[in-house]
UniProtKB/TrEMBL annotation:
Chief subcellular location: membrane
Annotated keywords: Membrane, Transmembrane, Transmembrane helix
Record domain EamA: where: 10-134, 180-318
SUPFAM superfamilies (alphabetical): Multidrug resistance efflux transporter EmrE
GO cellular component, one term: plasma membrane
Name recorded for this polypeptide: WAT1-related protein
Lineage: Eukaryota, Viridiplantae, Streptophyta, Embryophyta, Tracheophyta
InterPro entries attached to this UniProt entry: EamA_dom, EmrE-like, WAT1-related
Chain positions covered by the region annotation Disordered: 331-366
Keyword Transmembrane helix listed: yes
GO MF annotations, alphabetized: transmembrane transporter activity
Transmembrane stretches, start-end: 7-27, 33-55, 67-89, 95-116, 128-148, 178-198, 210-232, 244-263, 275-295, 301-320
Cellular compartments annotated: Membrane
Record's bilayer topology term: Multi-pass membrane protein
C-alpha cells in the first residue's frame, strides 16, 4: 500500500510540473487567467462526469443539501478563488516567486491541521521536533529559491527542446504591484491549504471520492464562469486556437483537475492532508530541471541550495510522521496485549474457583 501511495504522490507532482510549465507559457502569450480557469474546470467536468456516473452510480450514497452546500463552499474557496487569485498574483510577480511560495503550502496546511486538531506538534518529542524542523527547512528553501540567485549554472545543452513565441516574464514587478502580488499569492496558498484540510472531513461524511471530485469541478465551472464573464468582457480573450492555450486548457482540465484531484483525495484519505502537502517541494524541483532542459532556462545556485533544503525538510517531516505512527502502533499492541492478559487471568480465576466450590459443597453437611 505504501508503494502505491508513494507512486501516486510522485505522479501527482510530475503532473503539477507539467501544469506549471504549460500555464506559464499560456499566460506569457496573453491568455486571460479567469478564462483559463473556466475552460480548465469545464474540461475536467466533461471528462469526469461520465466516468463518475458509470463507476459509482450504483454505489453512490444519497447526497443531502448540507453535503452539497459543503462541496459548493469547498469548490469556491479551494478551487475557484484559489486558482483565480493565483493567476492574478502571477501577473503581478514573477514565475520564480510563484513557484517558491507554493512551497509555503505545507506550513499553512500544518498550522490549519493543528488548529483543527487533525495533527499534533509535540515539541518535546523527537518526532515533533523533526516535523517542526522540516517545516522550517521547507520555508527556508522556498525563501532561498525566491530571493537568492547566486552564480548561474548552465546545463551543457546547446539547443533546448522547445521554444515558443513571446517573452517569458522573468522580471519581477516593483513597488506596490510586487507587494500586492505577494499578498495575493499567499492568500491563494492559504485557500488551497483550507481545501486540503476541509476535504478530508467532507470525505468522511461523503466517501464517494470520484463523484465528490466531479461535483467540485462542476460547481467550480459555474463559479469560474461568473468570475470570467464579469472580468473578461473582450470576446477575443475567450478564443482558443490550435496552440499552447488549447493544450494548456486540455492538460490542466483533464489531467490536472480531473486525474490529480481524484488522486489527491485518495492520498488525503490514506495519509492525511499534511502528508500530501509536504510533497509539493518535489514539483518545484521537477520544474527547475524541466525548465532548464525543455526551455533552456538557466539554473542558479540559489535554486539548487533551495531544492536541497526543501528535500531535507520533506524527509524530516516524513520521518517524524513515520515515527509517530510506529509509536502509536506499538502502544496499540501493548494495550491489546494487556487487555488479552487481563482476560486470560479472569478465565484462570474462574476455572480455579470451580473446583474450590465443588470441594466446599462436598464438605457441607447438607
Amino acid at each position: 500500500m505504501d508503494r502505491k501511495i508513494y507512486g501516486a504522490i510522485l505522479f501527482i507532482q510530475a503532473i503539477y510540473t507539467g501544469m506549471f510549465l504549460l500555464s506559464k507559457v499560456a499566460f506569457d502569450v496573453g491568455m486571460n487567467p479567469f478564462v483559463f480557469v473556466f475552460y480548465r474546470q469545464a474540461a475536467a467536468t466533461v471528462f469526469l462526469a461520465p466516468i463518475a456516473l458509470f463507476l459509482e452510480r450504483k454505489t453512490t450514497p444519497p447526497i443531502s443539501f448540507l453535503i452539497c452546500l459543503k462541496i459548493f463552499m469547498l469548490s469556491l474557496c479551494g478551487v475557484t478563488l484559489s486558482l483565480n487569485i493565483y493567476g492574478v498574483a502571477l501577473k503581478y510577480t514573477s514565475a520564480t516567486l510563484a513557484a517558491a511560495t507554493t512551497n509555503s503550502l505545507p506550513v499553512t496546511t500544518f498550522i490549519l491541521a493543528v488548529l483543527l486538531r487533525m495533527e499534533t506538534a509535540k515539541i518535546r518529542t523527537r518526532a515533533g521536533i523533526a516535523k517542526v524542523m522540516g517545516i522550517v527547512l521547507c520555508a527556508g528553501g522556498a525563501l532561498t529559491i525566491a530571493f537568492f540567485k547566486g552564480p548561474t549554472l548552465k546545463l551543457l545543452l546547446h539547443h533546448h527542446l522547445f521554444s515558443y513565441n513571446g517573452e517569458v516574464q522573468n522580471s519581477a514587478a516593483s513597488g506596490n504591484s510586487w507587494i500586492k502580488g505577494v499578498f495575493l499569492m499567499l492568500l491563494a496558498i492559504a485557500l488551497w491549504a483550507t481545501w486540503l484540510v476541509t476535504q478530508n472531513r467532507i470525505l468522511k461524511s461523503y466517501p464517494s471520492k470520484l463523484l465528490c471530485t466531479t461535483l467540485q469541478c462542476f460547481m467550480s465551472t459555474i463559479q469560474a464562469f461568473v468570475f470570467a464573464i464579469a472580468l473578461a468582457r473582450d470576446p477575443s480573450e475567450w478564443r482558443l486556437g490550435w496552440n499552447v492555450k488549447l493544450l494548456s486548457v486540455a492538460y490542466c482540465g483533464i489531467v490536472v483537475t480531473g486525474v490529480t484531484f481524484y488522486l489527491q483525495a485518495w492520498v488525503v484519505e490514506k495519509k492525511g492532508p499534511v502528508y500530501l502537502a509536504m510533497t509539493t517541494p518535489l514539483a518545484l524541483i521537477f520544474t527547475i530541471v524541466s525548465s532548464a532542459v525543455l526551455f533552456g532556462e538557466i539554473i542558479s545556485l540559489g535554486s539548487i541550495l533551495g531544492g536541497i533544503l526543501l528535500v531535507g525538510g520533506l524527509y524530516s517531516v516524513l520521518w517524524g510522521k513515520s515515527r509517530e505512527h510506529k509509536i502509536a502502533a506499538s502502544n496499540t499492541e501493548d494495550i491489546e496485549q494487556a487487555e488479552n492478559g487481563s482476560k486470560e487471568e479472569e478465565i484462570v480465576e474462574k476455572q480455579s474457583s470451580i473446583p474450590n466450590a465443588r470441594i466446599q459443597h462436598a464438605a457441607s453437611p447438607v
